[in-house]
Amino acid sequence: MTRLTWFAALAAPVLIAAQGAPVLVTGRVTSGAGTPEAGVTVRIERLDVSTTTGIDGSYRLKLPGGYIPAGATLTITAARDGLKPGSASLRITPAPRLEQDFVLERTTAAD
């Protein structure tokens, strides 16, 4: 086999494993008191995707298919001025929809 053929043979399983349908991540961001937090940026930096929560604190973040193999773990963050940022590990599954909620506390003058 030539080098190119070997490379193609080795790379094919990786490319197949990484192909997949888009995944929808949904959730809600609330305060420690349980009230919804609007205007919070929810982001997965590794994929350069983000969205902002609505007035009810909910968000929808569509992850592009084909970039992340099932089983991968990504860090998802939620942040807004006046709130302590939060983060969580999000394990990608074959399911078309994942859910991740956040409870963010207000910052204080000492923070």
From TrEMBL:
Gene3D superfamilies: Carboxypeptidase-like, regulatory domain. InterPro entries: CarboxyPept-like_regulatory (IPR008969). Keywords: Signal. Residues 1-17 form the signal peptide. It comes from the Bacteria. The keyword Signal applies. This is Carboxypeptidase-like regulatory domain-containing protein. It comes from Sphingomonas canadensis.
